[in-house]
Known about the structure:
By secondary structure, the protein is α/β, with parallel strands linked by helices. The chain has two domains: about 1-35 and about 290-340, Lyase, Ornithine Decarboxylase, Chain A, domain 1; about 40-280, Alpha-Beta Barrel (TIM Barrel). The protein has eleven helices and 16 strands. It has helices spanning about 25-30, 40-50, 70-75, 85-95, 110-120, 130-135, 170-180, 200-220, 250-265, 280, 315-320, and strands at about 10, 15-20, 20, 35, 55-60, 80-85, 100-105, 125, 140-145, 185-190, 230, 270-275, 285-290, 290-300, 300-305, 340. It has an eight-stranded parallel barrel, surrounded by five helices. A three-stranded antiparallel β-sheet has the order 1-2-3. It has a three-stranded mixed β-sheet with strand order 14-15-16, with no helix packed on it. Helix 2 packs parallel to helix 9 and helix 8 (about 200-220) packs parallel to helix 9. It starts with 9 loop residues before the first strand and ends with a strand. Mean pLDDT is about 95; it is low at about 150-160.
Amino acid sequence: xxxxxxxxxxxxxxxxxxxxxxxxxxxxxxxxxxxxxxxxxxxxxxxxxxxxxxxxxxxxxxxxxxxxxxxxxxxxxxxxxxxxxxxxxxxxxxxxxxxxxxxxxxxxxxxxxxxxxxxxxxxxxxxxxxxxxxxxxxxxxxxxxxxxxxxxxxxxxxxxxxxxxxxxxxxxxxxxxxxxxxxxxxxxxxxxxxxxxxxxxxxxxxxxxxxxxxxxxxxxxxxxxxxxxxxxxxxxxxxxxxxxxxxxxxxxxxxxxxxxxxxxxxxxxxxxxxxxxxxxxxxxxxxxxxxxxxxxxxxxxxxxxxxxxxxxxxxxxxxxxxxxxxxxxxxxxxxxxxxxxx
Length: 342
């Protein structure tokens, strides 16, 4: 089970330890619920993807855990930030990240957010046909294209299918590209994102092939080719043992190879690659410590009530996500019953 936990996780004298500190000591000092991150694991995942795609620009999907200290740590490892709000942009700036290492997302960005992104020198992902009019030239932008691939993941976290609230279908993307060029924006490239919690690169490869065909249309119809391709993120992390392993470095290399081969197939100049991993960088590094308040044994079910809930983790209620639970101070005892945690 410990393979799901941070690299530094150990069980000593029946107690879970993280980074050499016992769970009870952490809970006693900081209280519960408490999210604990292992710095060694964070740096290991960052280095794994940087080593896998050394020529790519990698930015951390800050929505996975927006935190200034974490962004500073990743900046030390050569990783920028993918932000989706004014607050996340402020966090990235507070962490010392330069604009060229910040990507600004959002399907409903305000004029104020767009101006702040442009002032910061960030790369702005255009997500609607209206946005080119709101971005001051010569800001650097990408066009988010939705090519219609349905990733093998929960429907709530699919993002690249037809009808998605994110991105633009090809015809609208082509119009947006032309308008952005006419307005004097620096259109650096294209962006895709197919979904989250993806344990393999099949959906990425299918999407990249379609994106390359779209890029060839841009060349033929507008005499424009993307210098940069943002292939998104969505790489999975294991929460329970029966979920398949998802090696971040291997997934990143596969995506990079797909971009290179698809662009070559269409006779397009090789672009710079950008990737946006989020949970894949931080998921394994984090553990949430809860205190047990009550145990209620009823006919057919035993409820264990903890001092946390949807305010610190809404994923189980939103789309049925499952996690591995461990009794932190009885960690080496064999399980004797099944309970429901609430």
